[in-house]
Amino acid sequence: MEMQRKIMARGDRDRLGDLPDAIILYILSILPEGKEVVRTSVLSQRWRFLWKSVAVSLNFGVLDYSYDERTKKKILAFVASINRELHYWRSCEKIKAFRVFPVKYKEYLVKDYDFWVHFAMKVANVEEFTLKFCIINFPDCAYKFPQFTFKNTLLRNLVLGSCQINPSGSVTWTSLVSLSIGHLKLTDNMLEKILSGCPNLESLELDSVLGISRLEISSVKLRKLIILNDEIDCYCQWHDEDTHPLEIFAPYIQNLVLSGFLYNEIRLQQSNVASLATAVLHFNVDFIEFEDEEEKLEEEFRYLEELLLSVGHVKNLELGPLCIECFPILELRGWRSPPSSCKFLKLNAALKHLDFAGIYSFLQSSSDLETLVIDWNNHNPIDQLLSYTREVEQSRRFEAHKNCSLLHLKTIKIINFHGKLIGNDLVLRLVKYLLENATVLEKLVIVAKYEGSDVPRDYVEVEQEFLSFPRSSLHASVVFCY
Hints:
By secondary structure, the protein is of the alpha/beta class. It has a domain at 142-276. Helices cover 32% and strands 22% of the residues. It is built from 14 helices and 20 strands. A 15-stranded parallel beta sheet has the order 1-2-3-5-7-8-10-12-14-15-16-17-18-19-20. The radius of gyration is 27 Å and the shape is globular. The mean pLDDT is 82. Pfam families: F-box, LRR_At1g61320_AtMIF1. This is F-box protein At5g03100-like.
């Protein structure tokens, strides 16, 4: 109000206040938090009630503290504050999204959880709802998602974490386009019932979901499937259960992401994912749970072979560090990377000696490749993998691959370029290899990563060295981005 008086005293016009309501409402609608929208009501008399007409998003994040019984008082205060705010928001004409992340499921808070769900589904009629418990009691103790929620024709996006989903009747989520469920048990029949009630579903995410052995997706609209398991504890519980590998039948899926401690639990055949255009494969291995490490590695190698064959037809492929590191080991055993039809390839690599041999091997089998992206990360190779091969062997295999022509490769991008570069023969060799073998290359872009405001001296020296490398393409340019 003080600012408003100063403006009026100077005779200046309130240009923002002169805008039509429709434009002001649009500006308010792009504010990320509902509380920020409400704060604008103090700007002027005209703005006092405008916030009620804005479609807002309500977000209630977890408090920043570790959970123990001593924090029960804080948790109750946090829950009470949410309940007070929801009563306040009843006067809002449109609540677009409601996202809440409780610390951990506690039975004495069930009535509060029920109130939040009822508010979202019945009072606010939100399009997007998230209820995700941050500390997982998995899978024995979870919040039971109320039965009334399974009949909802307005919901478009639903995210549930550590909730029991057990509809007693049919599911009617006719407007739902995105569903993410995690850290729960399901049966094949239960999942089939849920999917049959989502005729317009476009994206499905299953995060550490136990109990299912067959995932059949017949809808032509469901184009994206994400299967995750980033919790080692969940992996161990998975194997404690009497479960079978998950077979996927999804002929219309176009985008597939497999990530985490999945091991050989996913069964995929190319004929069952014939429409697949994009695949992302990121795997982790933890050997603590296995007495015979070598036997476990053998299983992983076979599993990786199967997966690469099943996604050999995709046009866009992204591979995690472990996948790349396994290539040279498989090659030592007489395996050859299966032909790949990908035109876009992203490799998340640590650029250690295992990675380079893997990169060379896969590039040789990707004759249609047009765009290559290498994301240089800080992943440390697994000791058990390093014992299979030595740097001398990698150098020998590099010589075998060095005359491979990359006939269609036009764009190369190396991002997060970092670390000690002077004397890093592996990195220099890779860049030189790419420039010498990409015969139609148009651009090599290197995005450097460093701390501070000044570009490190060795980065500049390496840039000059790269620029001096011979290029098989007369039109190739080398661009450094600092």
